[in-house]
Amino acid sequence: MAARIPRGQTTNQVSISMDWVPTLLAAAGSIPDPAYPTDGMNLLPILTQNASPVSRKLFWRYKANAQRAARDGDYKFLKIMDNTFLFNVVEDPLSAPT
Predict the structure, then answer these.
(1) Distance between CA 49 and CA 13 in Å, rounded?
(2) Distance CA 64, CA 50 (A)
(3) pTM of the prediction?
(4) Which of 40, 38, 50, 39 is CA-nearest to residue 5?
(5) 20 to 30 Å CA-CA from 49: which of 15, 37, 43, 68?
(6) How far is it, in rounded angstroms, from Cα 67 to Cα 64?
(7) 83: Cβ–Cβ under 8 A, 6 or more apart, which residues?
(8) In angstroms, how far is CA 16 from the centroid of its own chain?
(9) Helices H, strands E: what count in the chain?
(10) How many Cα atoms within 13 Å fall on the side-chain side of residue 73?
(11) Which is nearest to 70 in space by CA: 85, 79, 59?
(12) Cα–Cα distance, 21 to 95 (Å, whole number)
């Protein structure tokens, strides 16, 4: 049976696009092929079983403009070429949902 995420549910779980594949596979009742492990985590327990968020540190980069970023808790570090930023994604009014 496929998993269902309740309508209107939100979570404070830090996630990244790489989490889509393991989450969608789990929702379909499948698992990743062991020969091709995924980089992300399965978010389904958090989305369907009210499991507690898992603490994570995320790091990523884009070749365009030599962008680099890290997320640790409520803080995000961002470097774009010679510009460096550190901000609190929860307290920053520009990052708040509208």
Answers:
(1) 13
(2) 38
(3) 0.75
(4) 50
(5) 37
(6) 6
(7) none
(8) 3
(9) 2, 4
(10) 5
(11) 59
(12) 26
